[in-house]
Description:
Clc chloride channel
Amino acid sequence: MSLYRERTSKVPLLARIDNSVEQLRKQANGADGPGFSVMLSLAVLIGIVGGLGAVAFHYLIRFMKSTFYAPTTAATFMEVVQGLSWYHRLLAPALGGLVIGPVIHYLVREARGHGVPEVMEAVALQGGKIRFRVAPMKALISAICIGSGGAAGREGPIVQIGASFGSSVGQYLKMRPEDIKTLLCAGAAAGVGGTFNAPLAGVIFGLEVFIRELNFKMLSPILLASVVGTQLANAIFGRTGPIFNIPGITMTGPLELLPYVGLGLVAAAVGLIYQNSLYSLEHFFENFSIPEPVKPAVGGLCLGALALWVPQIMATGYPVMEDALTGRLPLQMVALFMGAKILATCLTLGTGGSGGIFAPSLFIGSMMGTTYGSLMHSVLPGLISGSGPYGMVGMGAVFAGVSHAPVASVLLLFEMTRDPVSLLPLMLACMVSSTATRLYQRRNIYTTKLLNRGVDVEAILERAHRASEDVLEGVRVREAMSTDVATVSNSTTVRQLREKFKEASYEEMPVICEDTGELVGILSSCCILRDWDEEQEDSVVAGEIASQPCMKLSESDSLDKVLETSQGTDLVPVYSDGDCRKLVGVLSKREVFEVVRRTIQEGDKSAIEEMRAAD
């Protein structure tokens, strides 16, 4: 009897859950897209998962390090490595590559490399859709690669992990592509914020690298997810301060900004060497006549041999960076570490390993900046304050050069160090570095990988802009307008308007004069949702609170006229060509954007297929 009751009690619960999910799905994929509250609720969920993902990935890497290098009481990973036998240090990265190679090749090819290009491709070509299994597999594979000593970072994997979950939520709820992209970006921002304690930088990184556009509806969920993910990770880690504990920047005066221009140029040169070396080695190994699943093991073996000579280049190397920034390393060693880290990262990622390019960029930039600062200080001791500040700014400048994302670079370094004095030199050096590298070669470290596959993201965006103009010019208003118009009389009271809007499909409705039948204005639901006293509800009428439309259209106008202004209401009245006072329909700007989006997306897919066929 008790068993029967237990089973029957679960059925209504499961039914309620299914019903709730179905209701959420209906709200999320309606004709006008999900409501603002739905997007914010999903952002909280994605932020929680993104923050927990950052924590789980951190501890998974630690577990893999202890697995490959044995538990120890040593204070740092470098002390553990240096205390092991030479053959252990040689073979551990090769063993990690031997494990991940077959998994990547046979199960999840998206996990190969640094992950961000795969997310960019999903945004550009697939409406933001990423397979759900990418997230757990990317976490496991990258943790094995980094934990076994691979010279890679956490940013690429955590971006792909967070983006994969955000995309999966949107796909499960059958949302529109633009909403899936927003949730994808929210997941990436939550992961970056939770990993580096940099919530604002996580948001800007997602927008600057993936979305490349900004609107309020998109920004709010991404910001919320990043805040939730960062705060949750901080609470679990117990973090209250910046990631890097280094002395603050000091400047001798305004003239010291000039050497930071030179630092930006040097960072651009080093970034170009880093980026082009990575893909040159990748091309070399692509043509290397050994089985694909074995290539990461070969790269790991080469890395292990290099680490016998320079063990500091293994894994992320944050403690080594702090030693360089605080002046505890000699100049010759710092310069050696910079070159060795470039080679180590190329051996890790160029042979098919998995991990991010952000941590290696920071390592290379810190060594480059410290070297530059030391040399400049020896030449101009009265102008240059010391090598440490240049090492810190160099970290951001190298990443800005290879990523072409100067704003995200500035914010990441600022939030990781929390030094307000660093902002001016950071902004200057990052701007110079990203501009110089972009002038030298249009592609960055992310888009190069896509170009090698025949996908030109920049060309897709440029073609999308041209296509939107062509589409709008070629479509008449009468082809896109709605003739089934729900209108209200100018004498309708506020109390009656509330009932009308409950039944309406639009949040705005035209107000028509009872006597002449002409348009009085456009009434928004927000006008009647504010607090009215009882007397006003029956005395205030629609004609008094309706607003004049910002523009008027005729049936024969082209759709490009709709976007001439971004102000006013979303609903635009359409008049008859024969009678400029006769209302024949309405046009929603959202419907116009939807027409453009569908046309561009179809055009992008056919263009990409043509490019790949040509290759």
